[in-house]
Specification:
Structural class of chain B: mainly alpha
Mean pLDDT of chain A: 77
Helix content of chain B: over 70%
Radius of gyration of chain B: 24 Å
Number of strands of chain B: 0
Strand content of chain B: under 5%
CATH class of the largest domain in chain B: Mainly Alpha
Largest sheet of chain B: none
Oligomer: heterodimer
Number of domains of chain A: 2
Order of helices and strands of chain A: HHHHEEEEEEHHHHHHHHHHH
Largest interface: A-B, 42 and 50 residues
CATH superfamily of the largest domain in chain B: MetI-like
Largest sheet of chain A: 4 strands, antiparallel
CATH class of the largest domain in chain A: Mainly Alpha
Number of helices of chain B: 15
Structural class of chain A: alpha+beta
Number of strands of chain A: 6
Strand order of the largest sheet of chain A: 1-2-3-6
Shape of chain A: elongated
Helix content of chain A: 40-55%
CATH topology of the largest domain in chain B: MetI-like fold
Mean pLDDT of chain B: 77
Distance between the termini of chain A: 13 Å
Number of helices of chain A: 15
Low-confidence stretches of chain B: none
Chain lengths: 392, 336
Amino acid sequence: MQAAAGPAAPDRKAREAYFTASQGELIWARFRRNRAAMAAACVLLAIVLAGFFAPLLSPYDPTIAGRDRDYPNGAPQIPRFCDHNGCSLRPFLYTLERTRSIQTSFRWVTTVNTEKRRYVQFFVPGPEYRLFALSFDLPGVAIDIPGIAISTRLFGVDSGSIHLFGTDSAGKDIFSRTLHAIWTSLAVGTIGVLIGFVLALVIGGVAGYRGGWIDGLLQMLTDAVRTIPAIPLFMALAAFMPAEWSAERRFFFIATILGLISWPTLARRVRTHLLTERNQEYVLAAKLCGASGGHVVRRHLLPSFTSYIIVDLVISFPYMVLSETALSFIGLGLKDPVNSLGVMLQNVTNTDVLLNYQWYFIPVIFFIVLVLAFVFVGDGLRDAADPYADHR
Amino acid sequence: MLMFLRFAATRAVMALVTLLTVSFIVFSLMALVPANCAERYLAYKTTQGDQITIADIRAEESRLGLDRPFVVRWVAWVGDVFLRGDFGESCILRVRVSQLVGDKFLLSLGICAAALLFAYAIALPVGIFSASSSRPVLNNVLRLVSYLGLALPNFLLALIIMLISTMMFGDSMTGLFSREFRDVPWSLARLADFLSRAWLPVFILGWSATAFAMQTVRALVADENGKLYVTAARARGVHGVALLWRYPARHALGPIINSLGFDLNRVFNQLPIVAVILVLTDSGALLLEALARSNDQQLAGAIIFLLTASIVALNFITDLALAAADPRVRKSVMEG
């Protein structure tokens, strides 16, 4: 980057581009060179998109409405292209036949008929659903964006049903549930991160900019909150949620608690930065021009470390998802009609599941990949946002 | 020495103030939850078939002192806790909280401390070694392991180990004691039985702490490794372990000691979840029970307060230890 090369025109151009690049461009250029982080970013984008388009991608409704009565606790069905009867370009599944007779002591027995193929179809019609829809019904606010009504699903089979990841004990399709769960977990994380972010900016900003006794007081509060172990506290608060609350209210409550606990780390960072930065000349200049305190913080001080804040948000995201999962996992967070990754993990502690229905663990893989992707992207961003990284 | 005592005294006062703040936060949160102790207890009694009236609730409230203003109740609670170590009575069970918590809290504190010790026993040597080794393969493997420590949640690890031990040994390794030792008083045999089972929660709790600590140690030592004084020492002919231990590792230790309290916080966070899976009878599980089954705010508040108090105490001790051990810190303390 700093090579003292000859005055060749392309080189000069590159250097000019380097010196005139904005901070965002520089970060992006450094980030792009980090292959692990780029790969993680692609995976992350894929997962987020999969979560967003979950209704389109999943063949069935993730709630009890989409259950498959004839296939509870069913194993994953992997589409195949070839078998003893030859190959086909269109993937197919075998037909399952469910019979009950005196030979089976009148229990339902499922057999696979490898002679009868069921072909996978794309863009099949299904029950209508809404994409981009948003509807809350909270005590204070009621938002209702109808979205676009679509009744096409990405794939399905010509007869019977397809369960890529198998089904759970109620016959709900695990593939559909997983996709919807990703979106819910991300949404809880986002709301939590945003609440924590605003609190951190306000508290850290005031403490750092004012200094003096206000700073001392706020620091004491920050330290106290930081020492309280978060998950036991979540548990304490989450357990007092009245059982009759709707799924949405629980969801917002959990997200809010997560946010209310998570601010101290970032607030400390904001404060430290402001304490060093507020004595700089550009701040003095702004003050002499008659700018108010809020204006100085918002227009001059905060933009000076936006990249740090963004990086910090990305890094704290997996912790949010982890907390939500842990809470839901022990049964104090979200509950069954809502699909979140934690809710889906609730069932795997069962010995029956451990020994017989291992496909319940498939969402776990998504969960691990999601957290790992976030961590890698966060690390890559941190390295990229560090202006001294090149000179080490 | 006098200066050091003064420093210790200021730190002690600060720790006390933090504890008071925490107690206020915890107490307010417990007071904010819908329904108070009296209503809860009487609601529980209705489920047992008794008829109760509003007057009963009011009488119970005044018996428990719940009709006093909020601040007065807080002062009374804090006073009892600090002066007599008394957390009051559990809402539902009508037993003293200290009796319920008892040695369960000490047990879980011991397990957490052991997990922390385990984490650093592995993280320190491995972290220092990987920071000074230039082999990229080793570094990448360590990075992946520490990422997995974050991404593979403890409860999942616990499940996997349980599954394996059920299949291999026919014992799911749950609980802190085998059946024959569960309710007998402490003895040498009971201690041996406890130790033969306690390693599993210690390992599982230590797992993510290890990954985290390893990353911290590595980053700190790598930072120090590039500094001029290390180069100077190398030029003087100091090398190998002697160099590492004499210079960069010692410097890196300071921030690590400083963050021990927050590491303990992180381990506490995992405790209830692991405790649920492994069916441990320590305060983590007790907390969950207090919350999930009976909504007992008195008990929950006491446990959260105790957890926080142990973190604050650890922070205080590490502050003192750091000032005693690190000449730079000592100097800044003595002069400022």
